[in-house]
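Structure ticket #2291
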Amino acid sequence: MPDLLLILALVSHVVRVALLAIGGVLAVVALLDWAARTRRLNPFGGIARFMRARVDPRLTGVERQVARAGGQLALTPWWALLAYVVCAALAIALVDGVIGLVLDARIALGRGAMGVVLLLVQWIFAFLRIALIVRVVLSWLPRLAGSRWLSWSFGATDWMLRPLRRIVPPFGVIDITPIVAYFGLVIAEWLVTSVLLTGIA
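Resolution: structure written out below.
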C-alpha cells in the first residue's frame, strides 16, 4: 500500500509539473503572438513573421469562436491560453480522480461485499456529476456537442434535467437546472452512503 501511494503521488506530481511547464511556454507564446497582432512588435521582424507562419494557423478555430462571439481578434492568443488552462485543470482533475478511484477500490476490497457496493454507488454518483459538468461545458461549445465521444453526457443526464426544467424556472437566459441537479446528486449520495456505512458498521 505505501508503494502504491508513492507511485500514485509521483504520477500526480509529474502530470502537474508537465502541465505547468507547458502552460508557461504557452503563456510566453500567447504574449508574443498578442504583441505581434497588436503591432507592439515590428510586424516585419522575425518573431512576428514566425507567429504569423507557425502559431496563427493553429489558432484559426479559436479565432473563429472569438469572432463569432464579437470579441477582439487580437485577444485570440489569450483565449487559447485560457482554454489550455481549463483543459489542464480538467486533466489534473481526471488524473486525481483516477488515483482516488484506485485508492477507494483498495479500501473497499478490505471492507468486503458491502464495501464494494458502497464503492459502486460512489462511482455511479461520480459518473453522473462528471456527465453534468461535461454537458454544461458542451453548452458553451455547441460545435463539440454533436461529437460521439461527448454525446454520452446527454443520455446520462436527460433523465434528471427534463423533470427539473418543468419545476425550476430559468434564471434570465441561464438554465440553472444542471446546478440544481448537481447539488441534488451530492445530497442523494450523502444519504445513500450514510445508510450503507451504517450497514458496514
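Closing remark: The two ends are 23 Å apart (CA to CA).
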